[in-house]
Amino acid sequence: YFISNSEPAAAHTVGVLLEGARDQTLDFCGKTLRFDRQAIAIALDGCENITIENAVIDWDIPFSAEGTILTASPEAVTVAIDPEKYPHHVGDGTLVFTGPGWTSRYFGAIEFDKDGRVRAGAGDTFPPVTADITPSGVELRGAFSVVPQVGNTLVLRHGVRSHPGFFCQNSQNITLRNVTFHATCGLGALFQFCENITVQHVSFVPGPGRRVLSGHDDGLHFSNCRGQILVEDCRFQGLMDDPINVHGTSVQVLSHSGGLVQGRFGHPQSIGFNTWAAPGDQLSILDCRTLNALGTAVVKSFSLSDPVHFTLELDRPLPAGVDLALENITNTPRLLCRRNFFGSCRARGLLVTTPRTVVIEDNTFESSGSAILLSGDANAWYESGACRDVTIRRNRFFHCLTSY
Questions:
Q1: pLDDT digits (tens, 9 = 90+) for 131-164
Q2: Which of 32, 36, 86, 234 is buried most deeply by CB count within 10 Å?
């Protein structure tokens, strides 16, 4: 698979796979799907009218670890890490975590306070460190601009973002209901190029024996979808990225002549989308420098040359003399987000980039970053979909934007 906002992989391991399925309900009856290596727990590809419900998804050894801060100074921090829950050793001065048939190198950390929230003012301030195992714990040495606090929990991040916990592509009328994620290897639940999605009573929360950690990256991620997205009565706590992200994918124009365009996917974690455009789709033409829309065009054909480059035929020529990007405004969804709890996670709460109707109501936000971010770009993450119609009402905001 080519998976949005994830590292490319030569192959993917899947626990339960539905391809081309129609009119089915998979009821897991409250049982746990438990994994011991990089894997997608459940994947749907080219499906219609599917409900996935009543499942718990977890890993024996998650691809992040927890530790308790024992000592702290501007030069060093000592952390107690349970070797049974999170097997580890030090190699070449780097903390290395291990599991059945895999090793994974530490790449960063985030501090949570005793109330289970990202510590105010700490955010992504944990510096590069060298590691050593001492009789009192794992010693991490670096230049700490914000000195961690003794007794707090440190989430130590490792693993490659290549396998979402749940993956759904090129599907329509999909429901995810009463599913609890205690861990993931990458994004939590990812829907890409899908139409009409319902997510109800889905939770990303720490599993038994874990204090704050629930997921490796985002919780719910919707990329290049259309139709209606409903997210209601869900709970997000202890994720290492955003609880919800809704966006499209803008692409770079390399050259154009008449209606023929040579282009590329701009971000290395979002490539290989052979369904990015289809004949009849409407594209918005963007000035990369200002993100202003310069007009629209209709797709006549679209084909990949390789996972990064493509050829696009449009019904009209593009403007000359401007650095251009394109976004597919046919693949943009409506969003209704209500009665959800956005607890403290490493990043923000709800990211929305879609021009269609958005309603955000009756939610509670305790986001360490911005509670709600309306954004989009064609230069960095290439997450497209400038907002046009957003209603935010009857929400509660506590402890928000405590860290950048």
A1: 999 999 999 999 999 999 999 999 999 999 999 9
A2: 234
